[in-house]
């Protein structure tokens, strides 16, 4: 690993005025360092090198700029460097103007950097403030996300995880849930976005986070938004249902085609279940969800689900659907205070469930590997 003198020598090559071939070798070397934990840790201790990488994203050499962007993507994936990148280097307000350029070639890398930096709540708040106060504002980010081919050179899928990360903050959820902005309505169709699981998962995560605010549940479940069919449709399959069961479903879930496919990504399926579960936190929410015949969709979905932890989330949701209403004073499940003794028992049960799930996954993996080996022998 480099000593202090070597770091200073490396820094000397990371300037706009350095000879192109030497500069290119230096940025390639730095990019290689960001591929290891020790390398990222070393670079993260040098604010000057981090600033130099940011400056060289403006280099006239596309190869040099590309190396620097990919190095910053790798560095931003390391939580220990977040504070330096956000506060010391001021990475976010410097990169945001480039994201607005509909012809910029490295906007995907900018999206990845912003998504990485916003994962943890403490730096997420910094990213959100930079977007709102020094950048284009969250409204513009949503516009870019919802505009097909905003930038014909890149895909911008990682704006989805960025929105999901930002909505861990109450102020970002407040923006998304503003009834006058129609943001939720614009995001809903992306729960079925086939071209990218990253974009699709980002939207589902955003909607799930917004469901934590139970005061908005009547609006989300009402006719203005009608969020439930958008959460259920990815979980629905092609199974034949009785006429009575079919008639009780929302129109969008009735008579689905024989080739209807369920959501492929287990993490997204789990977030969909979590969002529905949150919408059932209040008595009025449970009433709406039950009246929409949600149980029928989840019953068939549970038969199909093979991931143990996702199946468990479905089971817990079904349990709420078929259970009697809680006693007076306990109707809002998000506000119920659980005694410490009960909370301890629940945590123990949860730990045991997680151990069981881990064991089941291990057995499934062994079974899968064994099956492949048998196939090879044949």
Structural notes for this entry:
Helix 8 runs parallel beside helix 11 (159-166) and helix 20 (294-304) packs antiparallel against helix 21 (308-322). With 378 residues, this protein is an all-alpha fold. The protein has helices at 4-13, 20-33, 37-44, 47-56, 62-76, 82-88, 91-100, 107-117, 121-134, 138-146, 159-166, 170-176, 183-187, 197-210, 217-221, 228-232, 243-247, 266-279, 283-291, 294-304, 308-322, 340-377. The model is unreliable at 374-378 (pLDDT under 50). The protein has 22 helices and no strands.
Features of this protein?
single chain; 378 residues; mainly alpha; 22 helices; elongated; disordered C terminus
Low-confidence stretches are 374-378
The helix/strand class is mainly alpha
User: From the alpha-carbon coordinates, what is the Rg to the nearest angstrom?
Assistant: 24 Å
Order of helices and strands: HHHHHHHHHHHHHHHHHHHHHH
Number of strands: 0
- Estimated share of beta-strand residues: under 5%
> What can be said about the biggest beta sheet?
none
| Total count of helical runs of at least 4 residues | 22
How much helicity do the residues have?
55-70%
Shape from CA axes?
A: elongated
Distance between the termini: 49 Å
- Indicate the mean pLDDT: 90
